[in-house]
Design brief:
alpha+beta, 7 helices
Amino acid sequence: AFGLKLKGMGEEQREAEAAVWVKKVGLGGFEKKYPAELSGGMRQRVALARTLAVKPRIILMDEPFGALDRITRWNMQDLLIDLWSEVQATVFLVTHDIPEAVYLGDRLFLMTPRPGRLTEIVKLPRPKEKAAEMQRTPRFSEVVNEISRKVETIK
């Protein structure tokens, strides 16, 4: 609720709004827990709720799911797709995980190593399936392999 407080929202309204977002990220019942009592995936969901609750126009995310196991990562990717559609935000996601970039991105910006310079912009379709389903399809694998080949040739 802190971000909502900074936006000038009254205490009663911000607590209600925070409770809505806690439920949206599947953490109803964990409101009284301290961060140390939450798993890594739960902490990521708290961060997502905290960010999306203020309904930003632009969201910057740097390796948001890097420390998560595969199943939790897929669940978080699905949650992110659902929720950012709701808040209608532009999301800049920095990741070194090519399948994650292909699943979440509608435009993929390929960068050179140090110094980072833009080499190519690849347009991608929006996901129509859940992460686990889509990432097992032959077409998804083809796109990931194509992007991987491009990344390998960047100097």
